[in-house]
Amino acid sequence: MKILITGGAGYIGSILTPRLLALGHQVTVIDSFMYKQTSLLDCCHNPDLTIVRSDVRNADLVKKHLAKADVIIPLACLVGAPVCNQRPIEARSINLDAIKMLADLSGKGQIIISPTTNSGYGIGEEGIFCTEETPMRPVSLYGTLKVELEECLLATGRAVSLRLATVCGISPRMRLDLLVNDFTYRAVTDRFVILFEAHFKRNYIHVQDVATAFIHTIKNFEAMKGEAYNVGLSDANISKMELCLEIQKQAPDFCIMESEIGKDPDQRNYIVSNEKIEKTGFKPKVSIQQAISELIKGYQVIRRHDFTNL
After folding, report:
1. Overall number of domains in the chain
2. What is the percent of the chain where pLDDT is above 90?
3. Residue 305 maps to a domain
4. Which of 106, 186, 188, 303 has its CA 20 to 30 A from that of 133?
C-alpha cells in the first residue's frame, strides 16, 4: 500500500516507518525535523521511502503527496500537556487544524488511522475502568484538542482512532519526558525521584507495540473503521509509586521519595480497559518490566537532556 505518515521521523514514526517498509509498503514521510533528529537515516537506502522536509500545515505540499496515499497516519503533533501549554496557538494549528485539513483534502477511498490519547479521560473514578464509552473529561489543552480531533475524524466514517496509553521505550527519536522513560532515566543517572501524588494511576504501552497496533489496524480496517480503541497494556494500570517500585527492582540504588505537599502539574488519574482492541486480535508483547530493562540499557548510550518535547 501507499502510506503517508506526517511526523514519520518522530518518536513513534521512526519505529513505525521502517516496520511498514519491511512489510513492502511504500511510505512517504512529511516531517519538519523540528527536534533536529537524525532518525530514518538507516532507511534511506530503501527505494520505497520518500522523505519530505516540510511543515504539515503547508496545504499545497500536503495535497500533492496526499493524492497518492491509500492510508494516512497523522503523527505530526506537539505531544504532551507541557509543550501545548507553552505553545497553545501552535498546538491548535498542528494538533487539530492541520489534521482536519488532511481529512478534508482526502477522498472516500483513503483511510485515516490517527493516534489520539487516553489522556482525554482526565480524572477517572477509583476502581472503575475507562472504556471507549466513558465520557471524555480532558484536563489539559493537549487532551482537549485530541478529543475534538477524534470526533471530527470518526465522523468521516473512514477513520480509526487509537487512544494510546502513555508510551514508553527506546526509539531513534528518543523522548525523556514520557513518564516511564523519565523515571527510569532518573533511576540510572540521578538515582532518586521525588513523587507528587504518587497514587495517581495511568496505563502504559511500549512504542514497538504502538507500531504493531497501527499495522494491525491497517490489516483489519474494515472491521474496525469508525471506532475508537484504547491501546495499552492491560496489566500496566499502575500508580506512579508502583511504577517506581518496578524500576527499583532493576535499579536497586533508586531512591523513591514521596512529597506530602505540592501537586503534580499533570492531574490525570485513571485506569483503562483495552478489551475492545484485544477482541480484534491485538495483543501487546512488551511488558513494563521489559520496557524498563531496555531503557536501562539504552541510557548507557543516552546521557543528554535534549531528548524531550520541551
Report:
1. 1
2. 82
3. no
4. 106
Alpha-carbon distance values, 224 to 71, 113, 272 (Å): 14, 10, 19
Half-sphere exposure of 144 (CA within 13 A, CB side): 9
On whether residue 218 sits in a domain, the answer given is yes
Q: What is the pLDDT of residues 146-196, one digit of tens each?
A: 999 999 999 999 999 999 999 999 999 999 999 999 999 999 999 999 998
For the stretch 112-148, pLDDT in tens is: 999 988 878 887 778 889 999 998 888 889 989 999 9
Residue 209 or 108, more confident? 209
Smallest CA-to-CA distance from 200 within 274, 268, 255 is with 268
Average pLDDT, the chain: 93
Domain membership flag for residue 308: no
* Residue indicated by cell numbers 483495552: 274
> Cα-atom radius of gyration of the chain, to the nearest Å?
19
Residue 285 lies in a domain: yes
What's the chain's length in residues?
310
- The set of cell numbers assigned to 22 is 519491511
Residue 239 in contact with residue 203, Cβ under 8 Å? no
Sequence-separated (6 or more) residues with CB below 8 Å from residue 193: 183, 186, 187, 244, 254, 255, 256, 257
Rounded to whole angstroms, what are the CA distances from 267 to 81, 166, 197? 10, 14, 9
Checking DSSP bridges between strand 2-6 and strand 237-239, what pairing results, if any?
unpaired
CA distance 50 to 185: 34
Q: With DSSP H G I counted as helix, E B as strand and the rest as coil, what are the percentages for the chain, rounded to 5?
A: 40, 20, 40
Q: What domain range is 32 assigned to? A: 2-238+246-298
CATH code for the domain of 152: 3.40.50.720
Of the candidates 156, 189, 152, 216, which has an alpha carbon nearest to the alpha carbon of residue 299?
A: 189
